[in-house]
Amino acid sequence: MANPQPDWQGELARQRNRIAADRTLMAWIRAGLILITVGFGLVRGVQITQPTLADRLLPLGLLCVAMGSGWVAIAARDHWQESQRLTQPTYRYQPRPSLARWFGVTVWLGGLLAAIALVWGGVLHPG
Asked: Which of 34, 72, 86, 92 has the fewest CB within 10 Å, making it most exposed?
């Protein structure tokens, strides 16, 4: 019995999907690093320019760092799952929830909480 010809189109499609998943992971890492940098930069910048406000803005900086770190972890998990699926001989597309939508929602909520904390906490208008 002769060996069947390899499915080159299928293998090339898998390779393209794996490379796309790698690019997507790198984009999520960049987005997470931006949030982490904003968190550190906010706290450090305020420590230098307005030392009396540094303690008040520390929770906001920590929120940014936590959100960025969390999203890098979520994206790494998603990438690992997709990589595992690509190794299966019967790989098929499966619709999944959009990470970008949830990322946008969490950043929006984080910004809303930060704005409320800044106004309500008296950071913008110290009394």
From this structure: 92
